[in-house]
């Protein structure tokens, strides 16, 4: 088994802006909305339960434990469709699942204020659970879509650009939501704005989205041939291949990838869901400053994602490092660097230094996109959506349990020592996740990427591994 290398281009890269770039922009905004619709509650819940609020909107009587359950409820539904949608995207394409999921999630978001004010917190949890079920479509489908559209020489730049939409969505939501919550329209406007943006994207996507270059009605022959000539490990018969379930389930690199994904998500969702509360209760910033401070780490991550993506492709193009070494180096920067910053939070009581540490934790996390997060495309591009579905399914159990654990550990949200326990746990997850990825992860294309049934009851090679 040999490590995949950059292919020799048989078709010259088309000049200027292409259809592949439009697809990348649309999926970038899909990821943007995925996180905007997901994290709007993280800021809104501070105002929804603020007993000192003078907005005239009723204050919701949710204690710390209930808030932890409410923040995690989206992920109860989120884990369910991950693996099935990876298969759906491979066999039938990503366009219509993404359209339906975004539209449904957006409508449920618009209904959220009415449900919160007129029904119990349990019903509100159900609403978030249904949104989570719809959101389970995004990652496997976008990953499968990117595998079809990103030429190998541009793969990590496009992949990073698309998935940095999640951080851009987090940053904008954190920043704007603080101002919306303090506006005359109050916290309900957070849900209305994010929901309406999702409806708008759905309409545009219906007209411009496409599953692959072959299914796009107006792409030039030159661009189509260029994309397909570089995807040397992608089969035209991908949709008809039988899924190698046993090979996937017994693959050590897949297990290492899944464990690393899980550990990263524990730290990430601890920060993403609890950061506004930490900034408000421990660092003592008001709601408007809270939104700005909470968005700064994600702004840093957006900027560094672009920088790391360009540097990552340049390193591989100039063959300064092997793909395997480069990916593990980026991963170490993200996770062990983040673990050190988590520990560093415990040694400072200064608000400014704490904010800097939070910016470092989230900001250098941008390296995961050139690290483990794009490893699905390395291991099996024909099954990239399925692999993302599998790892993202298990990796999002921390998104369920991290806010719940936070709610039970941090009983007094103004007690800094309780927050430190939470941060040390996250540091341990970051450290273990990267250690396992270094020891057992790989960028080698797996043999089962190119296996399909030759006839009923038997298997044959679709094509030999390309190097």
Would you write up a description of this structure?
With 467 residues, the protein is mainly alpha-helical. 69% of the residues lie in helices and 2% in strands. It has 20 helices and two strands. A two-stranded antiparallel ribbon has the order 1-2. A hairpin with a 2-residue loop joins strand 1 and strand 2. Helix 1 runs antiparallel to helix 10 and helix 4 runs antiparallel to helix 7. The longest helix is centred in the middle third of the chain and has 31 residues. It starts with 18 loop residues before the first helix and ends in a 6-residue tail after the last strand. 54% of the residues are buried.
SSE arrangement:
Blueprint: H1 19-48, H2 64-78, H3 82-92, H4 95-110, H5 112-118, H6 121-135, H7 138-149, H8 155-163, H9 165-182, H10 188-208, H11 221-230, H12 245-249, H13 252-281, H14 287-317, H15 323-345, H16 351-363, H17 375-379, H18 384-395, H19 397-409, H20 416-440, E1 451-455, E2 458-461
Antiparallel strand pairs: 1-2
């Amino acid at each position: 088994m040999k490590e995949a290398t950059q292919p020799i281009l048989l078709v010259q890269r088309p000049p200027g802006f292409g259809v592949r770039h439009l697809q990348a922009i649309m999926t970038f905004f899909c990821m943007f909305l995925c996180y905007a619709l997901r994290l709007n509650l993280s800021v809104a819940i501070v105002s929804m339960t603020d007993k000192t609020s003078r907005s005239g909107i009723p204050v919701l009587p949710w204690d710390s434990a209930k808030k932890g359950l409410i923040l995690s409820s989206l992920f109860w539904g989120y884990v369910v469709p991950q693996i099935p949608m990876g298969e759906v995207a491979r066999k039938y394409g990503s366009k219509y699942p993404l359209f339906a999921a975004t539209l449904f999630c957006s409508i449920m978001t618009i209904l959220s204020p009415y449900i919160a004010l007129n029904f119990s917190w349990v019903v509100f949890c159900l609403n978030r659970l249904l949104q989570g079920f719809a959101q389970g479509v995004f990652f496997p489908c976008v990953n499968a879509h990117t595998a079809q559209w990103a030429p190998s020489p541009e793969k990590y730049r496009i992949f990073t650009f698309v998935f940095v939409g999640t951080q851009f969505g987090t940053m904008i939501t954190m920043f704007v939501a603080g101002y919306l919550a303090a506006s005359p329209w109050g916290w309900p406007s957070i849900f209305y704005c994010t929901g309406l943006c999702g409806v708008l994207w759905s309409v545009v996507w219906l007209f411009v989205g496409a599953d692959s270059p072959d299914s796009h009605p107006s792409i030039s022959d030159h661009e189509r041939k260029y994309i397909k000539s570089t995807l040397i490990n992608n089969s035209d018969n991908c949709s008809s291949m039988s899924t190698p379930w046993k090979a996937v389930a017994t693959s050590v690199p897949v297990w290492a990838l899944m464990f690393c994904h899980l550990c990263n998500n524990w730290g990430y969702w601890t920060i993403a869901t609890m950061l506004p509360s930490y900034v408000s209760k421990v660092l003592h910033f008001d709601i408007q400053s809270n939104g700005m401070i909470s968005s700064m780490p994600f702004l840093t991550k957006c900027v560094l994602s672009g920088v790391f993506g360009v540097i990552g492709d340049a390193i591989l193009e100039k063959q300064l490092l092997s793909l395997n070494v480069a990916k593990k180096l980026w991963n170490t920067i993200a996770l062990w660097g983040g673990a050190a910053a988590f520990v560093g939070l415990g040694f400072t009581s200064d608000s400014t230094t704490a904010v800097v540490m939070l910016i470092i934790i989230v900001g250098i996390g941008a390296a995961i996109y050139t690290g483990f997060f794009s490893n699905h495309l390395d291991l099996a591009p024909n099954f990239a959506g399925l692999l993302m579905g599998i790892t993202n399914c298990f990796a999002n159990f921390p998104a369920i349990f991290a806010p719940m654990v936070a709610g039970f550990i941090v009983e007094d949200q103004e007690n800094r020592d309780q927050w430190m326990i939470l941060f040390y746990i996250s540091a341990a997850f970051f450290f273990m996740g990267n250690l396992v990825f270094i020891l057992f992860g790989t960028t080698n294309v797996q043999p089962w990427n190119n296996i399909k049934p030759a006839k009923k009851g038997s298997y044959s090679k679709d094509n030999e591994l390309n190097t």
